[in-house]
Amino acid sequence: MKTLITIEEMTSARNQWHRDRQKIALVPTMGALHEGHLSLISEAKKYADKVLVSIFVNPAQFGANEDFSKYPRTVEDDLKALEGCEVDAVFLPNAADIYPDGFQTYLSNTSISRELCGKQRPGHFDGVLTVVIKLFLLTGAHTACFGKKDYQQLKVIERMVQDLSMNIQIVGCELIRDDDGVALSSRNRYLSDDERKSACSLNAGLKAAKQSFDDGNRDAAELRAVALKVIEASPGVEIEYLEVRDQRRL
Ligand code: PAF
Q: What distance lies between CA 70 and its chain's CA centroid?
């Protein structure tokens, strides 16, 4: 597995792969890798000759009061995990190379990024898009894989690719849950035992709504109420939002 740190190392590997007519699949991550990331890598292998994983904790997508400095950084373990799943290369850029002095060009989505998670995290998705478009340009990837766990992020990225007529295939991959039903997520390491118990109610609520849907209920407000009832019954849960949306465009 190649470890690419500088922009020059990344672009020279990319150029060589392009010359060799190799298809490149990118799995962008912020590290602290878990089974969810590894499943993205397995999926990526189906689409390309070369699988490249980027690890970059992107400062531009964290708000002033968010967890940028605390975000788990486990590069040594991550590299071991990547060696184990036969990735071709890992791109580990420095912040000063991604956002060099004087950096002043950001990408902005003006609609779906402002709702749902975006309401509580103004600027978050613009930070995501800015780094993602840079990663696409630097890596020359033909395909990029993103988890459906961050469903709004996936939709915002798909919209960027469509709006900017970009020649890259976006693959949305299923989310992976732990045995207790909580989605695998680097940030779930922060949960205490009690918080973890409360977190189980999210999946339980979604499952209850799905059961009601499968039983024939097609009323969005009622489906929402079914999920809400289960989630609210769990102590320690404060709901930010719970909405039923169109799957394609939110
Ligand atoms: O989903 C993530 O880990 C990040 O938002 C991403 C896509 C790697 C951009 O920093």
A: 18
